Amino acid sequence: MQTTAAQTLIDIRKLNLYYGNFHALKSVTMDIPEKAITAFIGPSGCGKSTLLRTLNRMNDMIPGTRIDGTITIGGADIYSKEVDVETLRKKVGMVFQQPNPFPKSIYDNVAYGPRLHGTHSKSKLDELVETSLRQAALWDEVKDHLKRSALSLSGGQQQRLCIARAIAVGPDVLLMDEATSALDPISTLKIEELAQELKDKYTIVMVTHNMHQAARVSNQTVFFLNGEVVEFSDTEKLFSNPRDQRTEDYISGRFG
Amino acid sequence: MMTKRRELDHGLEELNELIIDMGRRVETALKQSIEALEKVDAESATRLIREDKELNKIEEKISEIGSRLIATQQPVAKDLRRILVAFKIASDLERMGDLAVDVAKVVIRLEGQALIKPLIDLPRMAQIVQMMTYESIQSYVQENVNMAYKMAKDDDLVDALYAQIIRELLTIMMEDPRTISQANLLSFVGRYIERFADHATNIGESVVYLVTGSRPDLNA
Lengths: 256, 220
What we know:
The complex is a heterodimer.
Chain A: E1 8-19, E2 22-33, E3 37-41, H1 48-54, E4 65-73, E5 76-77, H2 85-91, E6 92-95, H3 106-116, H4 122-135, H5 139-142, H6 155-167, E7 173-177, H7 185-198, E8 203-207, H8 211-217, E9 220-225, E10 228-234, H9 235-240, H10 245-251
Parallel strand pairs in A: 3-8, 3-9, 6-7, 7-8
Antiparallel strand pairs in A: 1-2, 1-4, 4-5, 9-10
Chain B: H1 6-38, H2 42-73, H3 77-109, H4 121-142, H5 145-175, H6 180-212
Pfam families (chain A): ABC_tran
Organism (chain A): Paenibacillus taihuensis
Keywords (chain A): ATP-binding, Cell membrane, Membrane, Nucleotide-binding, Phosphate transport, Translocase, Transport
């Protein structure tokens, strides 16, 4: 199903996921290329967020979840018994729908992860905070108030802070679950621009209800329906001349 | 869930109807321009030129509706192609209308003259092109790619007739230089009708693009 020549980072093979009796993902197979933006689209309940959450094992916390098939990231099976979930989540960061900064200072939000993973040197932390905030396109706005509470920031700034926090621990993958749906159009555009820049360093996988966002931002788009992958194509192709009639019907607003 | 597409579907339907209307008008304009030529009827020719303004207005309307749909409805995939194709076909049809006007202008310049020869091949050529125009619009309405390809094949026939007309007119001009000015105008008419057919072929290409998403070259 893969369409570009780029190197695969995330390799999903015959993945089935059940919430109790509900078969939420049905034999999903795909290769997600590295250093590109892959968008998941589809109607509510199609499995796109579920799949996103399998990539850093967030579903582990939901009782009654059963999973078979394999997911490897950079060749390593992330569901093998040896995997330490904390380490996995350091490598696979996540940004959520609602910005969720800690009720701490801007500085401490970004430094939180590195401290947790054992970095305590002040100069090292200062450097990490600055580079992370710069990468998240927030530095210029906050550099003079790093001690201020993160909650004093606007929604869009908070979301960029959450991205900086995810970046600070040196991930390979950034998962964005509807990361702009609670933001105004200008903040949304900023995050979209930011994602474009970040894809040079990170592999980004985003779930979005906003099809036009997927069309604007992503390199590849995956269309899900009822837990199955209907189409995985280059974004340009999927939105201009999709292979599958169901994709055409969905992106044209005929259902969903 | 249909309600959210109401505006888009309604607009696309409007575009469709306008294109069909333009097609019908252009087909008639070609037919009447050649009839006016055969009878050297300057009055009909003048009316034809007046009526062409309506075609320009319809093209503008298509352009307005299409831009509005793009700006407000964010169409993608085939919906977007429908709009792009409507722009393109409207522009071809508008050009075809202009070519019928060019023929009508020749008629006005010939007013009061007897034709240097009875017209045989020009009306025959025009008939084929009129059919091509009809089929190009039908292939659009039915989204019929095969019909579009079949229609485009007739362009070879038109080109052959055009070459024949030019040969014949050259002979007439060599025989009697006094015919040159009229023969020259008649060869222009041949050229206008030949161009008319090329636009019909373009419409066929737009139909193939609408249906398949790929751009063929039916003139090749």
